[in-house]
Amino acid sequence: MATDAKEKLIESAIRVFAEQGFRAGKVADIVKGAGANIAAVNYHFGSKEQIFVAALRQAFADANEVYPSKGDLDESAPAEQKVAAVARAVLRRSFDEGKAGNFNRIMGKTMHVPGSPVELILNEVRSMELDYVEKILAEYLKTKSPPILEWAKSNFIQLATLICKRPGGSEGLFPGDPKPKEIEAMIEVQIGVILASLKALPQKFPT
């Protein structure tokens, strides 16, 4: 029963944070959605930050199950294909209106809002995906320069998460309700933009 109660709280937290982000999301709404009480949150998580972390981890697991970062590639695949696969996964999550899109919605409604636990989130996301992104960017750009890799990672993240950070998400990007083929076409165009931006980076940090 305790596990069921904890899972219900996480499921409710994912919904609340996906709709409102960390700052605006209320523990009272999470509790209500789970049919629980505040004491249950304190018992299982101890704080709003910790239930947020649990929700973020589960939301990423849900997203990565449907749209895995590595796609169907193995370690021997060319670096450009690996970069494109991660970008494709992130972009597809942004267009997904189901639970596989919750991770991007949470991030889009949280990361640039004052008062959000940015460092906490970055520490979590680093192990989820960012360490892998940095590894394949280093392989793609053939550099170990920390400043260049940070620059590349920033470019990649900004362009790959462009859709989920728009106030209306993907709304207005298409003349009507988009067909899957149209979404995939837009994703491939955006991947081209990402790769072009990475290729445009200098070989060494300008001084």
UniProtKB/TrEMBL annotation:
It comes from the Bacteria. PROSITE patterns: HTH_TETR_2. Residues 3-63 form the HTH tetR-type domain. It holds the Pfam family TetR_N. InterPro entries: Homeodomain-like_sf (IPR009057), HTH-type_TetR-like_transc_reg (IPR050109), HTH_TetR (IPR001647). One of its GO terms (molecular function) is DNA-binding transcription factor activity. The keyword DNA-binding applies. The keyword Transcription applies. Residues 26-45 bind DNA. Keywords: DNA-binding, Transcription, Transcription regulation. Gene3D superfamilies: Tetracycline Repressor, domain 2. This is HTH tetR-type domain-containing protein.
